[in-house]
Design goal:
single chain, 241 residues, alpha+beta, 2 domains, four-stranded antiparallel beta sheet, 11 helices
Amino acid sequence: MVNWTQMHDCYGEVDRVPALLEQVEFEDNADAWEELGYRLVLEHDLVFPASFAALPRLIRLASRSTRARALAGTVLRRAAGHHGCDALLADCADAIVEFREVLDRHLRSRPDDYLPIFLDMLAAKEEYHWSAALGDFADDFYHLACPHCAVEVTIAIGDHGRYSAVRDWHLGDVDRRGLRSAYSEELRGIGRWMHETAVRDGQHALADGIAHLFGNAECPCCASVFNVADEYAAANRPVLR
């Protein structure tokens, strides 16, 4: 049972969020949902105790409410930040497992908003760095340091090409080297899940981008070869407490 007297929202209030939750459970009120959203997730991606206290109730509504599903996903995508609510987030573990099932059913239906739901699922799997960085691979860039010579390498995956390069302020991406896409049987862990799910749901551009993201790149400076996803994850994966 949540003690709401300890669960302040972004305005420091403790009574408005539970009142709004009661309201939206019985009526799909757009104004109530809007207020609930800005009380739970402030600009600059800040979340609060009330955000996590509300999460199980939002997830219970998620199978029948698009707004609840979207707001629960928005809260979870911010869960890796410095919010001081680790114990509250841990208490949501069972609800988050349930949320993953809701999201997976929705992904299987191939919705128009597929990518946002996919990113919410990555957050629900605690893959926060991919949830924050993954795009539709129309114009995606990843910046990382070569693990061998430390030069900053730009990785491009999109309609413009799939390559590693050094970015020059005046010349753009120079000394381009083509990426080697990973074969599906080479993928492991979250990369395998991402690729298999995109293929399952007919998201071919997404699947192809993921295969390149989890493939290998050549450093334009020292010609060493490294795995793109491994280096990006090592530099950007949050340290979970």
